[in-house]
Design goal:
The complex is a heterodimer of chains A (209) and B (167).
Chain A (H helix, E strand, L loop, with lengths): L8 H26 L4 E2 L3 E5 L4 H5 L5 E11 L3 E8 H11 L12 H26 L3 E3 L3 E6 H11 L7 E10 L6 E9 L1 H10 L7
Antiparallel strand pairs in A: 1-7, 2-7, 3-4, 3-5, 3-6, 4-8, 7-8
Helix pairs in contact in A: 1-4, 3-4
Chain B lengths: L9 E3 L5 E5 L3 E7 L3 E7 L4 E7 L17 H13 L9 E6 L5 E2 L8 H15 L4 E6 L5 E6 L5 E4 L6 E2 L1
Parallel strand pairs in B: 1-3, 6-8
Antiparallel strand pairs in B: 2-5, 3-9, 4-5, 4-6, 9-10, 10-11
The chains are: A alpha+beta (209), B alpha+beta (167).
């Protein structure tokens, strides 16, 4: 695997835009699923060692749920959604049509509900990028974990073989602000530096210099 | 990697890193998933070391930027550092924590059991060096935080929703 490419701010903007459109699509799907308005932040695009992504979300021992979907094809990598435990339980409330604050523990049913949210988000993100670029992107079945943030992210990093290189991290925060019941989540797309050129080529950008 | 001077300090060991400490300080590494924490302790001089292993074997990689990431390179490095702090390799006692399988689902590319491989390789390297593993808490599907108390050589394990466990 090569060195980290030097990307200009124009290219970083383009990556942010891709992420924005992909997540915009995903958030629309989630809003329909939950029948709620969902907002999203301006995405962050950066090259960083994967372990630093832990710090973007919270402390290494924080309880979070994580749905990850592996990508193969022209842009191999991974997309993942991370929700803190409070937001996870509120998501289950919304999905099951229960009053906010009802769910106190994540049971099997709750887990599959959260996993389905991740699956829907990942699917609509990928299809938005596909319709922009016509790149070949396949997604695997979702994987789920509910435990310490640090343990989850490092295990993912190792399992995906992304431990030597910096990864391209596209991060977006999702939030649904309802006074005391606010839900927020983080979305990451991680890919290899080599895949980025393919993204740029497909978008009609020349060499990223 | 200096010995901390303060009383009873808690020294944090990052991912793919190692540190040593002397009685009465404590070494801590947070959120072990498939990673394995290897602690070594010399009860005579009261010096301990803690390594956070991510991958079993450096031989599969062309370039190694951080040797402490691997069980096969990290353990000998930690021992070397401890020896220069007056530790005898013949007195070292090891404990292993971690090596879990965090994710559930059907994507078998992601369930390659790295946790198990990290554990196996760490055991193999320690055996080769003649260092006994006196206790361990490995496998399963929970994330763990590991703390080595250099006053006693005890290892404390924190999992979410459970009491601290001592091994």
């Amino acid at each position: 695997m090569g060195k980290t490419p030097e990307l200009s701010s124009v290219h970083m903007d383009a990556l942010r835009e891709i992420s924005n459109i992909g997540m915009g699509n995903a958030v629309t799907s989630l809003a329909q699923l939950l029948n709620r308005r969902i907002s999203m932040s301006v995405p962050l695009a950066a090259f960083m060692p994967f372990e630093e992504t832990v710090g973007l979300v919270g402390g290494p021992e924080e309880l979070v749920s994580c749905v990850s979907v592996r990508l193969s094809g022209d842009v191999p990598g991974m997309v993942l959604f991370v929700f803190n435990s409070y937001s996870t339980l509120r998501l289950v409330d919304l999905l099951m049509g229960m009053e906010l604050g009802t769910t106190r523990e994540l049971d099997k049913m709750g887990q599959s509900a959260v996993m389905e949210v991740g699956n829907v988000l990942a699917g609509s993100f990928i299809s938005a990028i596909y319709s922009m670029t016509s790149l070949n992107m396949k997604s695997a079945v979702p994987m789920f974990a509910y435990d310490m943030l640090g343990a989850i992210l490092t295990s993912l990093m190792v399992a995906s073989g992304r431990t030597e290189d910096k990864a391209l991290v596209l991060e977006t925060r999702l939030f649904q602000d309802r006074g005391e019941f606010s839900i927020s989540g983080h979305f990451f797309m991680l890919t290899e530096p080599g895949s980025i050129q393919k993204l740029f080529d497909a978008l009609g950008f020349s060499d990223p210099q | 990697m200096e010995l901390a001077a303060k009383d009873n300090a808690e020294i944090q060991v990052g991912i793919a890193d190692y540190k040593i400490a002397r009685n009465p300080d404590r070494l801590i590494t947070l959120g072990l998933g498939s990673c394995v924490g290897v602690s070594l302790y010399d009860p005579v001089v009261g010096v301990g070391g803690l390594l956070h292993v991510m991958l079993p074997d450096s031989a599969q990689f062309n370039q190694v930027s951080k040797p402490a990431k691997f069980a096969d390179l990290g353990i000998p490095l930690l021992i070397k550092e401890m020896q220069s702090a007056g530790v005898s390799i013949y007195r070292l006692q090891a404990k292993l924590v971690g090596g879990a399988q965090m994710f559930s689902g059907l994507d078998d590319k992601l369930t390659l059991n790295i946790g198990q491989r990290n554990t196996d390789k760490s055991r193999e390297i320690l055996k080769k060096l003649g260092i006994p593993i006196i206790s361990e808490e490995v496998g399963g599907n929970r994330g763990r935080t590991m703390i080595l108390d250099t006053r006693t050589g005890e290892v404390l394990i924190r999992t979410l929703g459970n009491k601290l466990k001592v091994i």
